[in-house]
Write a structure and sequence with these properties.
It contains 11 helices and 14 strands. The chain folds into 2 domains: 59 residues, DNA polymerase, domain 1 (Orthogonal Bundle); 257 residues, Aldolase class I (TIM Barrel), CATH 3.20.20.70. It is an alpha/beta fold and 338 residues long. Helix 5 packs across helix 6 and helix 10 packs parallel to helix 11. The strands form 3 sheets. It has a 10-stranded mixed beta sheet. A two-stranded parallel ribbon has the order 1-2.
Protein backbone atom coordinates (compact mmCIF):
# COMPACT_ATOMS: atom_id res chain seq x y z
CA UNK A 1 0.00 0.00 0.00
CA UNK A 2 1.35 3.43 -0.97
CA UNK A 3 1.92 5.60 2.07
CA UNK A 4 -0.30 8.64 2.63
CA UNK A 5 1.14 11.99 3.74
CA UNK A 6 -2.16 13.08 5.29
CA UNK A 7 -1.80 11.99 8.90
CA UNK A 8 1.97 12.46 9.25
CA UNK A 9 3.28 14.85 11.89
CA UNK A 10 5.92 17.45 11.04
CA UNK A 11 8.62 15.20 12.55
CA UNK A 12 7.48 12.26 10.42
CA UNK A 13 7.36 14.44 7.30
CA UNK A 14 10.89 15.68 8.01
CA UNK A 15 12.13 12.10 8.24
CA UNK A 16 10.46 11.15 4.95
CA UNK A 17 11.77 14.11 2.93
CA UNK A 18 15.27 13.72 4.37
CA UNK A 19 15.34 10.09 3.27
CA UNK A 20 14.45 11.28 -0.26
CA UNK A 21 17.35 13.74 -0.21
CA UNK A 22 15.18 16.84 0.12
CA UNK A 23 15.78 19.77 2.49
CA UNK A 24 14.08 19.42 5.89
CA UNK A 25 12.11 22.62 5.27
CA UNK A 26 10.21 20.81 2.50
CA UNK A 27 8.29 19.05 5.29
CA UNK A 28 6.86 22.37 6.42
CA UNK A 29 5.84 23.20 2.86
CA UNK A 30 4.07 19.86 2.49
CA UNK A 31 2.28 20.30 5.83
CA UNK A 32 1.11 23.76 4.80
CA UNK A 33 -0.25 22.49 1.49
CA UNK A 34 -2.06 19.50 2.98
CA UNK A 35 -3.22 20.76 6.38
CA UNK A 36 -3.76 24.46 5.77
CA UNK A 37 -4.48 24.79 2.05
CA UNK A 38 -6.27 21.49 1.56
CA UNK A 39 -4.21 20.26 -1.40
CA UNK A 40 -5.30 16.96 -2.93
CA UNK A 41 -2.46 16.54 -5.47
CA UNK A 42 1.28 17.16 -5.56
CA UNK A 43 0.91 19.38 -8.64
CA UNK A 44 -0.77 21.99 -6.41
CA UNK A 45 2.38 22.30 -4.29
CA UNK A 46 3.91 24.97 -6.53
CA UNK A 47 6.64 26.16 -4.14
CA UNK A 48 8.19 22.67 -4.21
CA UNK A 49 10.38 21.94 -7.26
CA UNK A 50 8.93 19.78 -10.02
CA UNK A 51 11.65 17.15 -9.47
CA UNK A 52 10.83 16.92 -5.77
CA UNK A 53 7.10 16.72 -6.49
CA UNK A 54 7.78 13.83 -8.86
CA UNK A 55 9.85 12.09 -6.18
CA UNK A 56 7.01 12.51 -3.71
CA UNK A 57 4.43 11.23 -6.21
CA UNK A 58 6.52 8.10 -6.83
CA UNK A 59 6.51 7.13 -3.16
CA UNK A 60 3.39 8.71 -1.62
CA UNK A 61 -0.20 9.74 -2.14
CA UNK A 62 -1.63 12.84 -0.50
CA UNK A 63 -4.23 10.65 1.20
CA UNK A 64 -7.44 12.56 0.60
CA UNK A 65 -10.21 10.29 -0.72
CA UNK A 66 -13.84 11.25 -1.45
CA UNK A 67 -16.87 9.75 0.25
CA UNK A 68 -18.46 6.63 -1.26
CA UNK A 69 -21.95 7.81 -0.31
CA UNK A 70 -23.53 11.06 0.88
CA UNK A 71 -27.04 11.31 2.38
CA UNK A 72 -28.80 14.54 3.39
CA UNK A 73 -31.50 14.68 6.04
CA UNK A 74 -34.62 16.82 5.83
CA UNK A 75 -33.15 18.85 8.74
CA UNK A 76 -29.90 19.57 6.83
CA UNK A 77 -27.73 16.97 8.56
CA UNK A 78 -25.37 15.24 6.11
CA UNK A 79 -24.05 11.68 6.56
CA UNK A 80 -20.92 10.58 4.69
CA UNK A 81 -19.62 7.05 4.11
CA UNK A 82 -15.82 7.17 3.80
CA UNK A 83 -13.56 4.33 2.65
CA UNK A 84 -10.71 3.41 5.00
CA UNK A 85 -7.12 2.54 4.14
CA UNK A 86 -7.75 -1.17 4.78
CA UNK A 87 -10.77 -1.35 2.45
CA UNK A 88 -13.55 -0.96 5.03
CA UNK A 89 -15.81 2.06 5.60
CA UNK A 90 -16.96 4.44 8.34
CA UNK A 91 -19.73 7.00 8.72
CA UNK A 92 -19.24 10.69 9.52
CA UNK A 93 -21.99 13.20 10.27
CA UNK A 94 -22.03 16.95 9.48
CA UNK A 95 -24.52 18.90 11.62
CA UNK A 96 -25.11 22.52 10.48
CA UNK A 97 -26.79 25.06 12.74
CA UNK A 98 -27.37 28.81 12.53
CA UNK A 99 -24.16 29.94 14.19
CA UNK A 100 -22.07 26.75 14.17
CA UNK A 101 -21.36 23.57 12.23
CA UNK A 102 -20.27 20.39 13.99
CA UNK A 103 -18.68 17.27 12.53
CA UNK A 104 -19.18 13.95 14.31
CA UNK A 105 -16.07 11.87 13.53
CA UNK A 106 -15.50 8.10 13.86
CA UNK A 107 -12.39 6.54 15.42
CA UNK A 108 -12.91 2.82 14.76
CA UNK A 109 -14.70 0.47 12.37
CA UNK A 110 -17.34 -0.91 14.70
CA UNK A 111 -16.76 -0.92 18.46
CA UNK A 112 -15.67 -3.30 21.23
CA UNK A 113 -17.84 -1.72 23.92
CA UNK A 114 -21.08 -3.42 22.77
CA UNK A 115 -23.52 -1.11 24.54
CA UNK A 116 -26.97 -2.68 24.17
CA UNK A 117 -28.60 0.47 22.78
CA UNK A 118 -25.94 1.39 20.19
CA UNK A 119 -26.10 0.13 16.62
CA UNK A 120 -22.34 0.52 16.14
CA UNK A 121 -21.78 -1.99 18.93
CA UNK A 122 -23.98 -4.51 17.11
CA UNK A 123 -21.51 -4.35 14.23
CA UNK A 124 -18.71 -5.78 16.34
CA UNK A 125 -15.13 -4.51 16.21
CA UNK A 126 -13.30 -4.50 12.88
CA UNK A 127 -10.23 -2.37 13.55
CA UNK A 128 -8.81 1.00 14.54
CA UNK A 129 -8.83 3.86 12.06
CA UNK A 130 -5.44 5.19 11.02
CA UNK A 131 -4.59 8.85 11.50
CA UNK A 132 -5.15 9.22 7.74
CA UNK A 133 -8.63 7.68 8.06
CA UNK A 134 -9.52 10.00 10.93
CA UNK A 135 -8.33 13.19 9.23
CA UNK A 136 -9.80 12.26 5.85
CA UNK A 137 -13.27 12.37 7.42
CA UNK A 138 -12.63 16.01 8.27
CA UNK A 139 -10.71 17.28 5.25
CA UNK A 140 -12.87 15.54 2.64
CA UNK A 141 -16.36 16.73 3.60
CA UNK A 142 -18.01 19.27 1.29
CA UNK A 143 -18.36 21.96 3.97
CA UNK A 144 -14.99 21.73 5.68
CA UNK A 145 -14.59 25.52 5.61
CA UNK A 146 -17.82 25.94 7.60
CA UNK A 147 -16.73 23.76 10.51
CA UNK A 148 -16.67 25.34 13.95
CA UNK A 149 -16.51 22.20 16.10
CA UNK A 150 -15.42 18.56 15.92
CA UNK A 151 -16.77 15.83 18.19
CA UNK A 152 -15.26 12.36 18.32
CA UNK A 153 -18.64 10.75 18.93
CA UNK A 154 -19.04 8.67 15.77
CA UNK A 155 -18.33 4.97 15.40
CA UNK A 156 -16.00 3.40 17.94
CA UNK A 157 -14.50 4.23 21.32
CA UNK A 158 -11.96 7.05 20.78
CA UNK A 159 -9.80 6.21 23.79
CA UNK A 160 -9.49 2.61 22.57
CA UNK A 161 -7.56 4.08 19.62
CA UNK A 162 -5.73 6.61 21.74
CA UNK A 163 -2.41 7.00 19.92
CA UNK A 164 -3.97 7.61 16.50
CA UNK A 165 -6.59 9.90 18.03
CA UNK A 166 -3.89 11.88 19.84
CA UNK A 167 -1.81 12.29 16.67
CA UNK A 168 -4.86 13.45 14.71
CA UNK A 169 -5.64 16.02 17.40
CA UNK A 170 -2.01 17.19 17.37
CA UNK A 171 -2.23 17.85 13.63
CA UNK A 172 -5.57 19.63 14.02
CA UNK A 173 -4.34 21.92 16.80
CA UNK A 174 -0.66 22.71 16.11
CA UNK A 175 0.74 25.62 14.10
CA UNK A 176 2.06 23.44 11.28
CA UNK A 177 -1.37 21.80 10.95
CA UNK A 178 -4.86 23.23 11.07
CA UNK A 179 -4.06 25.46 14.07
CA UNK A 180 -7.46 24.99 15.67
CA UNK A 181 -8.03 25.65 19.36
CA UNK A 182 -8.42 22.36 21.29
CA UNK A 183 -11.52 23.99 22.83
CA UNK A 184 -13.26 23.37 19.50
CA UNK A 185 -12.80 19.61 19.86
CA UNK A 186 -14.69 17.20 22.14
CA UNK A 187 -13.75 13.57 22.74
CA UNK A 188 -16.39 11.13 23.97
CA UNK A 189 -15.66 7.96 25.94
CA UNK A 190 -17.35 5.29 28.03
CA UNK A 191 -14.40 5.84 30.36
CA UNK A 192 -11.42 3.59 29.57
CA UNK A 193 -9.59 4.36 32.76
CA UNK A 194 -5.93 4.06 31.72
CA UNK A 195 -6.29 6.12 28.56
CA UNK A 196 -8.79 8.46 30.22
CA UNK A 197 -6.08 9.52 32.66
CA UNK A 198 -3.63 10.02 29.78
CA UNK A 199 -6.15 12.07 27.83
CA UNK A 200 -7.00 14.36 30.73
CA UNK A 201 -3.32 14.99 31.43
CA UNK A 202 -2.06 15.24 27.83
CA UNK A 203 -4.90 17.02 26.03
CA UNK A 204 -6.74 20.32 26.37
CA UNK A 205 -9.81 19.18 24.42
CA UNK A 206 -13.23 18.93 26.01
CA UNK A 207 -14.31 15.57 27.43
CA UNK A 208 -17.73 13.91 27.24
CA UNK A 209 -18.28 10.76 29.31
CA UNK A 210 -21.03 8.36 28.24
CA UNK A 211 -22.76 7.73 31.56
CA UNK A 212 -26.35 6.78 30.60
CA UNK A 213 -26.87 5.00 33.95
CA UNK A 214 -25.57 6.26 37.34
CA UNK A 215 -26.08 2.91 39.14
CA UNK A 216 -23.43 0.21 38.73
CA UNK A 217 -25.87 -2.70 38.35
CA UNK A 218 -27.99 -1.03 35.65
CA UNK A 219 -25.01 0.39 33.77
CA UNK A 220 -23.37 -3.04 33.75
CA UNK A 221 -26.55 -4.58 32.34
CA UNK A 222 -26.66 -2.18 29.37
CA UNK A 223 -22.98 -1.23 29.06
CA UNK A 224 -20.57 -4.19 29.48
CA UNK A 225 -17.63 -1.77 29.85
CA UNK A 226 -18.93 -0.98 33.35
CA UNK A 227 -17.42 -4.28 34.52
CA UNK A 228 -13.93 -2.91 33.91
CA UNK A 229 -14.51 0.85 33.99
CA UNK A 230 -17.07 1.56 36.70
CA UNK A 231 -18.81 4.94 36.63
CA UNK A 232 -17.92 5.55 40.30
CA UNK A 233 -14.21 5.02 39.51
CA UNK A 234 -14.44 7.27 36.46
CA UNK A 235 -16.02 10.10 38.45
CA UNK A 236 -13.47 9.63 41.24
CA UNK A 237 -10.60 9.90 38.74
CA UNK A 238 -12.06 13.01 37.08
CA UNK A 239 -12.66 14.70 40.43
CA UNK A 240 -8.88 14.84 40.91
CA UNK A 241 -8.57 17.43 38.12
CA UNK A 242 -9.60 21.06 37.79
CA UNK A 243 -12.55 21.56 35.41
CA UNK A 244 -13.38 25.10 36.43
CA UNK A 245 -11.68 26.89 33.53
CA UNK A 246 -12.37 26.89 29.79
CA UNK A 247 -12.07 23.14 29.35
CA UNK A 248 -15.49 21.49 29.59
CA UNK A 249 -16.48 18.18 31.18
CA UNK A 250 -19.87 16.75 30.30
CA UNK A 251 -21.77 13.52 30.86
CA UNK A 252 -23.95 12.05 28.13
CA UNK A 253 -27.21 10.51 29.29
CA UNK A 254 -29.49 8.70 26.83
CA UNK A 255 -32.98 8.39 28.30
CA UNK A 256 -35.05 5.22 28.00
CA UNK A 257 -38.73 5.13 28.90
CA UNK A 258 -39.29 3.37 32.22
CA UNK A 259 -35.65 2.37 32.57
CA UNK A 260 -33.49 5.33 33.63
CA UNK A 261 -35.82 8.33 33.44
CA UNK A 262 -37.27 8.43 36.97
CA UNK A 263 -36.19 10.94 39.61
CA UNK A 264 -34.47 8.09 41.48
CA UNK A 265 -31.86 8.19 38.73
CA UNK A 266 -31.73 11.98 38.76
CA UNK A 267 -31.05 11.98 42.50
CA UNK A 268 -28.20 9.49 42.03
CA UNK A 269 -26.66 11.68 39.33
CA UNK A 270 -26.73 14.64 41.72
CA UNK A 271 -24.97 12.52 44.37
CA UNK A 272 -22.45 11.13 41.91
CA UNK A 273 -21.47 14.47 40.39
CA UNK A 274 -21.61 16.64 43.50
CA UNK A 275 -17.85 17.29 43.53
CA UNK A 276 -17.45 17.94 39.79
CA UNK A 277 -17.75 21.13 37.78
CA UNK A 278 -19.60 19.61 34.82
CA UNK A 279 -22.78 19.49 32.79
CA UNK A 280 -25.18 16.73 31.73
CA UNK A 281 -26.54 16.36 28.20
CA UNK A 282 -29.81 14.43 27.97
CA UNK A 283 -30.15 12.53 24.68
CA UNK A 284 -33.18 11.02 23.02
CA UNK A 285 -32.94 7.29 22.36
CA UNK A 286 -33.22 6.40 18.69
CA UNK A 287 -34.76 3.00 18.09
CA UNK A 288 -32.53 0.32 16.58
CA UNK A 289 -33.56 -3.17 15.44
CA UNK A 290 -34.09 -5.98 17.96
CA UNK A 291 -33.57 -3.79 21.03
CA UNK A 292 -36.61 -3.68 23.37
CA UNK A 293 -36.16 -0.08 24.49
CA UNK A 294 -38.14 3.07 23.70
CA UNK A 295 -37.41 6.76 24.03
CA UNK A 296 -38.42 8.67 27.11
CA UNK A 297 -41.33 11.12 26.57
CA UNK A 298 -40.36 14.81 26.41
CA UNK A 299 -42.25 15.72 29.64
CA UNK A 300 -40.17 13.15 31.53
CA UNK A 301 -36.95 14.45 29.99
CA UNK A 302 -37.94 18.01 30.89
CA UNK A 303 -38.73 17.06 34.50
CA UNK A 304 -35.43 15.19 34.72
CA UNK A 305 -33.53 18.20 33.36
CA UNK A 306 -35.29 20.60 35.71
CA UNK A 307 -34.54 18.44 38.76
CA UNK A 308 -30.83 18.23 37.93
CA UNK A 309 -30.56 21.95 37.20
CA UNK A 310 -32.41 22.84 40.40
CA UNK A 311 -29.95 20.71 42.37
CA UNK A 312 -26.83 22.30 40.90
CA UNK A 313 -26.11 20.12 37.85
CA UNK A 314 -26.37 22.23 34.69
CA UNK A 315 -28.35 20.11 32.21
CA UNK A 316 -29.55 20.45 28.63
CA UNK A 317 -31.71 18.32 26.32
CA UNK A 318 -29.77 17.73 23.12
CA UNK A 319 -31.65 18.32 19.88
CA UNK A 320 -32.00 15.15 17.81
CA UNK A 321 -30.66 15.50 14.26
CA UNK A 322 -30.54 13.27 11.18
CA UNK A 323 -32.75 10.45 12.42
CA UNK A 324 -34.40 10.00 9.00
CA UNK A 325 -31.02 9.05 7.45
CA UNK A 326 -29.85 7.03 10.49
CA UNK A 327 -27.32 9.68 11.43
CA UNK A 328 -28.51 10.36 14.99
CA UNK A 329 -26.77 9.24 18.21
CA UNK A 330 -26.29 5.47 18.38
CA UNK A 331 -27.44 4.80 14.81
CA UNK A 332 -24.14 4.69 12.88
CA UNK A 333 -23.21 1.35 11.31
CA UNK A 334 -21.25 0.19 8.26
CA UNK A 335 -21.63 -3.58 8.58
CA UNK A 336 -23.54 -3.99 5.33
CA UNK A 337 -21.98 -1.11 3.39
CA UNK A 338 -18.37 -2.19 2.84
Amino acid sequence: MVKALLGLTIAQLQQEVTELGMPRFTAGQIAQWIYQKGATTFDEMTNISKRHRELLADKFVVGRVPAKEVHTSKDGTVKYLFPTEDGQAVETVFIPEKDRATLCVSSQVGCKMNCLFCQTGKQGFHGNLTVTDILNQIYSIDDVDRLTNIVFMGQGEPLDNYDNLNTAIEILTTDYGWAWSPKRITVSTVGLKKNLKRFVEESECHLAVSMHFPFHETREQYMPAERQYGIEEIVELLSQYDWSHQRRLSFEYTMFDGVNDSLVYAKEIVRLLKNLDCRVNLIRYHQIPEVPLSDSPLPKMTAFRDYLTKHGVYTTIRTSRGQDIEAACGMLITKDKN
